[in-house]
User: Which sequence fits this backbone?
């Protein structure tokens, strides 16, 4: 594949082999830590943990990911990073549950082993661990894109475009009309229209770049962006 069309990303770097093992480990560490929030949301939902304990367990998970052979299993046919992370977390959480049950038995805790074999059933309204990760993943991507857009527009002397974008697309309640925004920011109607259009385009490009880091080919990029848009509209 032509690198000029599809440059090396964090996830494609993870999936490189040979002498680039240290680079792969660094890329995996960067990806996992970038999506720490979704990973911790999964652990909270899967193990019924308080946030503080999930954060501690996440640190153990990162160490496990880097030390285990999961890195070697990051093969192209295994898909995008979000799916890979779900499988890794599922295995890790299952191991942690087994360890906890073994520790209880070793400490002489009595009770039905069948009752200890799995967490209590989820309420129908409670998201599954996978759904919790997906929701947190989407929120993390959007928030990261929003923050990066603010930095980039400010650095280019276009902070006013970000202010328009923020007030128009992220306003609580009804979207303000262009005349309201023009008066609020001291801009012409043409400025408002053009500024919103350019900021929206820049946001999409920024979001695309973030998603690109978690896939391995253009086909997966399209699928992941489609999923993100679908979730956003749901």
Assistant:
């Amino acid at each position: 594949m032509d690198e000029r069309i599809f440059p090396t990303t964090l996830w494609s770097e993870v999936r490189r082999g040979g002498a680039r093992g240290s680079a792969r480990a660094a890329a995996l560490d960067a990806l996992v830590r970038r999506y720490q929030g979704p990973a911790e949301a999964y652990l909270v939902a899967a193990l019924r943990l308080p946030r503080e304990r999930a954060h501690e367990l996440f640190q153990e998970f990162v160490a496990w990911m880097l030390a285990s052979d999961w890195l070697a299993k990051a093969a192209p046919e295994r898909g995008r990073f979000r799916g890979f992370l779900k499988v890794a977390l599922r295995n890790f959480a299952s191991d942690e549950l087994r360890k906890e049950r073994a520790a209880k038995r070793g400490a002489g805790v009595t009770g039905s082993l069948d009752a200890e074999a799995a967490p209590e059933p989820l309420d129908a309204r409670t998201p599954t661990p996978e759904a919790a990760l997906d929701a947190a993943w989407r929120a993390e991507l959007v928030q990261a894109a929003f923050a990066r857009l603010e930095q980039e527009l400010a650095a280019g002397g276009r902070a006013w475009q970000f202010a328009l974008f923020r007030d128009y697309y992220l306003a609580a309640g009804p979207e303000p009309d262009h005349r309201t925004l023009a008066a609020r920011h001291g801009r012409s109607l043409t400025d408002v229209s053009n500024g919103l259009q350019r900021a929206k385009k820049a946001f999409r490009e920024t979001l695309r770049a973030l998603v690109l880091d978690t896939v391995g080919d253009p086909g997966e990029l399209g699928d992941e962006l489609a999923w993100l848009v679908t979730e956003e509209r749901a």
